[in-house]
Recover the amino acids of this structure.
């Protein structure tokens, strides 16, 4: 097999990079072990939510406070703004409009009744008439009868603790074929159906009676963009705010489906479920990517390679017993630790040093050695694979993904195919 550019990984950075490279005219093949962070995340775009554990209000202004070598310092604010602007255009075209301003963070309601900082929110999660994203006035927190993944009482209790006038309630579901047990995805697929929504709306309206806004689990449709949410909101006659729930993320699945549709329209090929396991080289260039196949290892020849495999959590980096770390596709050097105990933090739910492990790159996203010299001329690393940042602890996963995708598209769009 042959491809102009091979993108390894199907998380936020891989999907955005593949889409932007294809839009720039490159012939792209995506190799992916499995689904990426879209299926885990809340469907929002986190640019920079925390520094040193403290919340950030203005993410772009706060970048100057990040340590030297952070991906944002390498690629610059122009790439960050371009990535966010492109994402907004992409989601608008896909019927998945996101609300927000890159210059100021908002908050997103979660199923636990917490308010997580983020930058761009899916419109169903944004809330009406407030720049912050937090629900205002009298709030009904409504679950759906029989849905086990969202406790209205828990969510409302925590919202009250932070000063929001929230009351729990439950809405009955119309008769359907999942009376005993169902998942959020199954409920979202049912809500895709217009007749199901018409039968659901009266019970939801009664459950939220007297409230000015209703917070509901993020399950208001999965296959038709934001249309089911908008339709149900009109039927109920009340603003509906989707609260982020446990994975798999329905808003994330909507976004993933939009990426897949766009990539297919651009003619991008996929090899899904057969991970990349190595590369072939000629001097300082990668000439082919090896990946698992049904019965043998396949070699895909390429001109450029983009690694978007994530950090340790994304299986892009392997931690060894002796404390060393290994990048799993091209064998690139990874910032390591003196021993295995240095991987972890002092608190289970606190920051862990392993989260910031990654591959060091130059301003052109090429992997570099200890002296800063490029190791491979035609390999670019993007997203969570990059060193000197912890996307979970600092809340920067999608921002770094989109910004590095912007940078790699600008670099490789100008590179002629050989």
């Amino acid at each position: 097999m042959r491809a102009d550019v091979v993108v390894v990984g199907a998380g936020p950075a891989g999907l955005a990079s593949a889409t932007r490279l294809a839009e720039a005219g490159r012939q792209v093949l995506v190799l992916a072990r499995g689904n990426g962070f879209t299926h885990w995340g809340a469907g929002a775009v986190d640019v920079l939510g925390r520094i040193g554990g403290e919340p950030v209000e203005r993410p772009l202004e706060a970048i100057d406070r990040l340590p030297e070598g952070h991906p944002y310092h390498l690629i610059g604010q122009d790439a960050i703004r371009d990535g966010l602007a492109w994402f907004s255009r992409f989601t608008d075209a896909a019927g998945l409009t996101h609300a927000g301003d890159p210059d100021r963070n908002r908050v997103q309601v979660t199923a636990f009744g917490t308010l997580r900082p983020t930058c761009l929110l899916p419109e169903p999660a944004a809330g009406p008439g407030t720049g912050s994203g937090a629900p205002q006035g009298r709030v009904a927190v409504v679950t759906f009868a029989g849905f086990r993944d969202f406790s209205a009482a828990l969510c409302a209790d925590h919202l009250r603790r932070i000063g929001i006038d929230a009351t729990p309630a439950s809405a009955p579901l119309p008769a359907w074929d999942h009376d005993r047990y169902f998942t959020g995805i199954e409920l979202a697929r049912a809500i895709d159906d217009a007749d199901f929504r018409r039968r659901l709306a009266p019970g939801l309206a009664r459950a939220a009676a007297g409230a000015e806004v209703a917070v509901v689990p993020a399950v208001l449709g999965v296959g038709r963009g934001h249309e089911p949410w908008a339709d149900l909101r009109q039927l109920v006659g009340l603003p509906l705010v989707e609260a982020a729930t446990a994975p798999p993320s329905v808003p994330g699945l909507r976004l993933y489906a939009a990426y897949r549709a766009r990539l297919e329209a651009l003619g991008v090929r996929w090899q899904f479920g057969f991970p990349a396991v190595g590369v072939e080289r000629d001097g300082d260039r990668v000439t082919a990517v090896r990946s698992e196949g049904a019965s043998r290892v396949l070699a895909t020849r390429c001109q450029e390679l983009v690694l978007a495999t994530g950090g340790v959590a994304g299986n892009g980096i392997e931690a060894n017993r002796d404390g060393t770390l290994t990048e799993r596709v091209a064998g690139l050097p990874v910032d390591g630790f003196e021993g295995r105990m240095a991987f972890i933090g002092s608190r289970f739910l606190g920051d862990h040093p392993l989260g910031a492990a990654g591959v060091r790159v130059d301003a052109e996203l090429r992997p570099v050695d200890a002296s800063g010299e490029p190791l491979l001329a035609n390999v670019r690393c993007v997203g969570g694979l990059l060193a000197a940042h912890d996307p979970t602890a600092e809340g920067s996963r999608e921002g770094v993904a989109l910004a590095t995708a912007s940078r790699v598209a600008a670099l490789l769009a100008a590179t002629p195919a050989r």
Q: What stands out?
A: Residues 77-93 form the longest helix (17 residues).
